[in-house]
Amino acid sequence: MHGTYNLWLVAASLVVATLASYTALDISGRIAMLSQSRVRHAWLAGGAASMGIGIWSMHFIGVLAFELPIPLGYDLKITAGSLGIAVLVSFFALHVITSRRLTAARLIASSVLMGAGIAAMHYTGDAAMRMNPAIEYDPRLFAASIAIAVIASGAALWIAHMLSDARQKNVLAKRTAAAFVMGIAITGMHYTGNAAANFLPGAICGAANDVDARWLATTVVLFTLAILIITLVLSRFDARTALLAGSVTRLNGQIVRMATFDTLTDLPNRRTMNERIERAIRGAKQSGSRFAILFMDLDGFKTINDSLGHTVGDEVLKAFARRLQECVRGGDTVARLGGDEFVVMLENLHAPTDAEKMAERILDMMRKGLLAGKHPLQVMPSIGIALYPQDGDSVESLLKHADVAMYEAKRGGRSTYRFFEASMNEAAVRTLQIQQALHEALNGGHFYLLFQPKFRGKSGELAGAEALIRLDHPEIGTLTPLEFIPIAERSGQIVQIGYWVVRETCRHLARWREEGRPPVKVAINLSPRQMSEADLVANIMAILREERVASEQIMFEITETVAMQDAPRTIEMIRVFQENGFEIAIDDFGTGYSSLAYLQRFRAKQLKIDRFFTNGLDENGQEGRAIVSAIIALAHSLDMDVVAEGVETGSQLDRLQDMMCDEMQGFLLAMPLSAEAFGGMLEGSGVV
Ligand code: C2E
Ligand code: MG
Ligand code: MG
Fold first, then answer.
1. Does 480 lie in the same domain as 405?
2. Nearest CA to ligand 1 atom 38
3. Residues 302 and 451 in one domain
4. Which of 120, 452, 493, 633 is the right S-S partner for 488, CB 3.0 to 4.6 Å?
5. Is the peptide bond before 133 cis (omega within 30 degrees of 0)?
6. Where in the numbering of this chain does the GGDEF domain appear (predicted)?
């Protein structure tokens, strides 16, 4: 007896098989994401039911597509049995797919089991027709159908396992393609199985009166589609909820991280550091151990931020954070308190020298320079160290004292470290007083200028002067710039003070001119913060015009350290100064780390040798003299004049003259003088 196929129903069976496979894949992805075993089991059971119904109903549509010229029906119990097999097989399949590891042996064993299961479902379904005489099966096609079932199951399990991670790319498209492949495999098995069946002539269906085949198939198709779709929707909805729950957890994590870590450098922030110090105090109290707090900030960081922009500033902070982390040991804490302030906590200290070594290591690391974007920069920290328990027994006092020690390190020439000492507290109080005094100084007229003469090396004639600022406060007395300029620099007041110095110098120059004195050139010191003012030169020119002084009468001194901090910018700055008729001197030469290439490109008029080297002429004998002589030769070869600062003894003067030093400045020749005294000195000197 031969049957025929209704092609529409064959296509419908393929659609159902594909949809069932897709649902299975989607659910397996869902299950793989679940960690709670209760929910996992629920999904496994529900998924198995819908997938089983899907496969099973595909089988029935397939049966319906095959039309026999006799009435057909199905035995309800056996049909239910074949559905039960389909659900069991599906449960087993989902379980295998979603297990974390799928070894080759396991895949093969599972494929055989699943293939056998599908075949069992199929042939049980056939048995439900209770054909009489029974269906005869072609052994080869029968074997082929089982082989297809096993191979298709293997492929399906493997694909599904690969796709069970829902986080991979294009997962939707991959699943659709895989579902289609799986659908073809399942349908293929069915139709091969059908081809194996041989309905004997004259056979009748013993179940023809049980359940009507058409009615059953239609109900099954609708029922199955509904179940598959509902399962899919549920799975999607649950995935969304899980995703939402996942993002809330992530967000929560982010908030916690933001509250405890610094977003720029990813280091612990102030709050976290405070907690860790508190914990360290408790631990140290119990174990009797010691620990150190290293407080540091970057010298001249404000200048970098102002002149190169915040992006470069941020890069510098990140690079510094990385260097600090490279320096410390595993158990130590590095934190950023804010701005350019960083703290390192070293626990279980053997001796204070451990902290000292760490400070030196950090300084050494930073001396190598760093690259902020495309800017090669040399940024150095100043470090203050406070030790537990001797320098404080609370978070506040330890941090405050380390900060005070850092401030001392800055006053002590920067790029260095200091241990906290009780006397430093007095210095901190003094700093506060000076800050207060500076607030009142400009309006109160507490600043004044002294002029220290400079003399020519050979002839000893007056060559010019350097303007040196003083602060005379009614309460705290006279202060030298070494005391208040770093404070004004920190607060930014130096910018206004700087303009005041230029104006005041111009006024004196104008007065001397009115008094009929010969014109003289005065050098004015510039500090780092002023250098980063965008319209510095324009503002200075405006002052000169107002006071009617020619720019040839003024030169500016830039310290070597500041000039080298951002050499390309310094070159540009000097060019603008020179275009406006000003000369430039590199001050305190020898204290920074000059690159000769840059020194040449600065095209400064003068090089001022730091007092330290002049002093060395007497103190350091032959070696000291060799250094000064080399600096002078170098400056001359670069077409610069050399000014020796701090000449205090006759022997220094003699030696400098022998070395052809161009100009001298120092207490031996003249102290810094009041404007009147210097004006008097100009009389008859004929300087230019
Ligand atoms: P500087 O530019 O190197 O100025 C030279 C310093 O050396 C002056 O100290 C001067 O009084 C001192 N000095 C001169 N000859 C001798 C000597 O023979 N022996 C010794 N021991 N010292 C000598 P001062 O006036 O205290 O100034 C210190 C620094 O303050 C200056 O160093 C300069 O960098 C800064 N400064 C001074 N005035 C100003 C200013 O108006 N603006 C800015 N931005 N900085 C200033
Ligand atoms: Mg100077
Ligand atoms: Mg100097």
1. no
2. 468
3. no
4. 493
5. yes
6. 289-422
* Mean per-residue pLDDT of the chain: 86
Question: What's the CA-to-centroid distance between 608 and ligand 3, angstroms?
Answer: 7
Segment 110-138 shows an average pLDDT of 83
Does any domain span residue 166? yes
Looking up residue 569, the CATH number of its domain turns out to be 3.20.20.450
Enclosing domain of residue 216: 4-246
For 143, list phi and psi in degrees, rounded to 5.
-60, -45
Q: Which residues line ligand 1 at a C-beta cut-off of 6 Å?
A: 452, 467-469, 480-482, 485, 498, 501, 525-527, 557, 587-588, 611, 645-648, 665-667, 672
Atom of ligand 1 nearest to the CA of 665: 15
Q: Is residue 341 one of the residues assigned to a domain? A: yes
Tokens of 410: 């800055």
Whether residues 523 and 473 fall in one domain: yes
Cβ neighbours of residue 601 closer than 8 Å, sequence gap 6 or more: 567, 571
Q: Which of 451, 466, 468, 673 to mutate to test the pocket of ligand 1 (most atoms within 8 A of CB)?
A: 468
Nearest ligand, CA 560:
3
CATH of the domain at 401: 3.30.70.270
100, amino acid identity: R
Kind of pairing between the strands at 370-372 and 375-377? antiparallel
To the nearest whole percent, how much of the chain has pLDDT over 70?
Answer: 94
> Are both 218 and 365 inside the same structural domain?
no
Which residue CA neighbors atom 8 of ligand 1 most closely? Answer: 468
Ligand found nearest the CA of 449: 1
Q: Within this chain, do residues 412 and 449 fall inside the same structural domain, yes or no?
A: no
pLDDT at residue 50 tops 80: no
Residue 686's pLDDT band (cuts 50, 70, 90) = low
With respect to residue 252, please indicate whether it lies within any of the assigned structural domains.
no
CA–CA distance, 68 with 47 (Å, rounded to integer): 34
Do 503 and 548 sit in the same domain of this protein?
yes
Per-residue confidence (pLDDT) for residue 246, from 0 to 100: 66
Residue 434: inside a domain, yes or no? no
Distance in Å, CA 608 to ligand 2 centroid: 8
Q: With bands split at pLDDT 50, 70 and 90, how would you rate the model's confidence at 555? A: very high
Residues 389 and 507 in one domain: no
Asked whether residue 162 falls in the same domain as residue 275, the answer is: no
Q: Among residues 231, 246, 261, which one ends one of the domains?
A: 246
Taking the centre of ligand 1 as the mean of its atom positions, its distance from the CA of residue 556, in whole angstroms, is: 13
Confidence of residue 401 (pLDDT cuts 50, 70, 90): very high
Helix axes 76-98, 7-33, angle to 10 degrees: 40
Record the pTM: 0.52
pLDDT tops 90 at residue 657: yes
In the chain, the N- to C-terminal Cα span, in Å, equals 128
Ligand 1 atom closest to 610 (CA): 3
Q: Of the residues 471, 496, 500, 525, which should be mutated to test ligand 1's pocket, given the most ligand atoms within 8 Å of the CB?
A: 525
670 vs 374: CA distance, rounded Å: 46
Whole-angstrom distance, CA of residue 469 vs CA of residue 483: 11
Number of domains in the chain: 3
* Domain end (from 230, 246, 262): 246
Alpha-carbon distance 273 to 268, whole Å?
Answer: 6
pLDDT tens-place string over residues 240-277: 666 666 666 676 677 777 778 888 898 999 999 999 99
